[in-house]
Amino acid sequence: MSRPKERTTVLVVEDDDLLRETIAVLLDRKGRTVLVAHDAPGALATARRHPDPIDLLVTDLALAGGDGLALASDLESRSRGLKILFMSGYPVAAAQAAALRGEGRRFIQKPFTPAALESVVAALLDP
Question: Which of 11, 30, 109, 112 maximizes the CB count within 10 A of its CB?
Answer without folding.
Answer: 11
